Amino acid sequence: MSSLGLSGLGRLEGGIGAIGAHSHGAEWAELWPDTAAFEGNYLRRVGGVELSELIAAHGSPAYVLDLATVESRINQWKTALAAGAGVGETTIHYASKALPVVGVCAFMAQHGLHVDVASEGELAVALAAGIAPEHILVHGNNKSMELLAQSVEYGVGFIVIDSLDELHRLGALGQPATVLLRLTPGVVADTHEAVATAAEHQKFGLSIRYELAHAAVDLIRQYPQLDLAGLHLHIGSNIANKDNFIAGIGRVAAFAHDTRVAVRHLNLGGGLGVPYVPGAVVPSITDHVETLFEALDGAFPSVPHLMVEPGRSLVGTAGITVYSVGTVKDVGDVRFVSVDGGMSDNPRPAMYGAVHTMAPVHRIGGAESPTMRQVMVAGLHCESGDMLGQAALPADLRAGDLVASATTGAYTLSMSSNYNRVPRPVMVAVANGNHETWVRRETVADVIARDQLPQALKLVTRLAD
Ligand SMILES: Cc1ncc(COP(=O)(O)O)c(C=O)c1O
Fold first, then answer.
1. Which residues contact 219 (CB under 8 A, 6 or more apart)?
2. Which end of the chain is more exposed for a tag (fewer CB within 10 A), N or C?
3. In this model, does residue 18 exceed pLDDT 60?
4. Is the pLDDT of residue 123 over 70?
């Protein structure tokens, strides 16, 4: 990371001012990395790096992560948490599921963050990044025995209990562990149903209404080696409505009061959204943390240690994906621009109907089109639903041109697949005019490496006999 020279952030080229000149205005700027530099309608540089040169060096498509933006979001969280009154220590656990990459976790640790993991793979990423086990928090609604065993063996900081079954499994290991209970407060967050995680009748957490949480408090007494250190709440992801957070905190506080659980550690999860389209109304990190503090005020007798687990709000707008244009097809009035990626590198549009804003990338030495037109940007996969979205792109867009999709730092690489056996893109970190591969591009050989030619079964021709 130090090779990227992030220390001199003041010298970064092309800051917000550069975007301000863009014809779309300030609302547009919020969607892109802080260092995004536009020329007219064209995105030219991120982190001081010419995107067309980056693609020449690393190939297309590429996830590009702007470290200055990540650092700025980290600092916003830290400053906002430090301003809050009435709580003791505060810790930010980076929710690594948003972008579970060794380099990213190492960057977070370098900035003093701890890490939350939700699988053996994410635990391995955190450990490979050099995260101290006591700075790791383990999540999951169906943690494998292997994950539980590794968690106690490494001595992770916290295991977040999600069910009574899991409490029995962890207890049966007979080893000491510090646990938080993940409560389900019955709050329906204003977000896509697939990422609303605190309503009744969904798979996460211990329901307060159905007294699973109360049962967990009783059950844990059977396992004296387990230290019930506090409570956990995560109401969902990509949320802009502050009332959802306030309601969740109120219900957790009421539960703590009713059950007299001593809350030494209170974890309020993640969930703050980021803007995906111009004009989207999303609270700033500062406003969001103020909301959390307002809701906490007087709700608990004391909060010695407050934890948060942001993912999307740390990395979402720091990332873009750059694609190369291939086929351009006019079907009546509709122009389809097909690019060299799609639902395999960003399943969000196909999965959630999510919208990502797109812009053309500056053509080095090439003329810029005076006119833009509305097009459908299509992926290369074998589904009509593989559309990355509508975009205003140059009327003369042609094969080989580059386009960038905004706000792809969170939940794109981490949810990517090999549909159609397409290799996954490279991930390149940029800062101060430097670029570095943090996840190498997959090859077709990588993609088919686990397949095996039939051996014993190759002679079976009639399985039904
Ligand atoms: C338990 C938990 N904590 C934190 C997060 C991070 O959420 P976000 O990326 O919305 O901040 C998630 C993701 O939904 C989660 O499941």
1. 164, 167, 168
2. C
3. no
4. yes
